[in-house]
Amino acid sequence: MSGLFSLPREEVAPGAVHVPGWLSAEQQRELVVVCREWARGPVPIRRTKLPGGGVMSVRSVGVGWHWQPYRYSRTADDVNGARVAAFPDWLADLGRRALVDAYLDEHAADGYAPDAGLINFYGGDARMGMHQDREERSGAPVVSLSIGDSCVFRFGNTENRGRPYRDVELGSGDLFVFGGPSRFAYHGVPKVRPGTGDPATGLAGGRLNITLRVTGLG
What we know:
About 15% of the residues lie in helices and about 35% in strands. The chain has helices at about 25-40, 90-105, and strands at about 10-15, 15-20, 45-50, 55-65, 65-70, 70-75, 115-120, 130, 140-150, 150-155, 165-170, 175-180, 185-190, 205-215.
């Protein structure tokens, strides 16, 4: 990444910022490698079952904490009972640098200590419905990183799943941060654009999304 104040950015809503091209090609390749390691275990990547009986179209794996609707746990009792991989310090450092660059404030990451990472892999037909990230007991910002195929990212309001919302094109290497007044905004991915990614990232197809969160669970 090029550092503070040097990349184009757009405030999509108060506290919600899009920074295109934040990750370098090398950083993307490194993240793809480590995400593949996490996908193999100790808790393997899977499609999450929803309380109503449906199954999500994205495949997910967590580090630090295991996520399932609508809670976190240290062990993946709905998969294989294993304890999830530890949340690495370098990933927390990456999250702090993301906040500084997104908010153009060298103090934006003061006290920010993400302890959960959710890795979602989207195939060409995968979607994510409008939802809020409310499992956390913290109002700290969410940091989202995209690698591979671009997507339409729908960023809405804090009251409901409908309008007003804004559709943002997220490409490979893009950073999106939402905190403050937008921390609990509804958001989703209605469309992935197959074939738009660069195989040089190490991802031949599909979209990889990595989100960093502060659970507040101790």
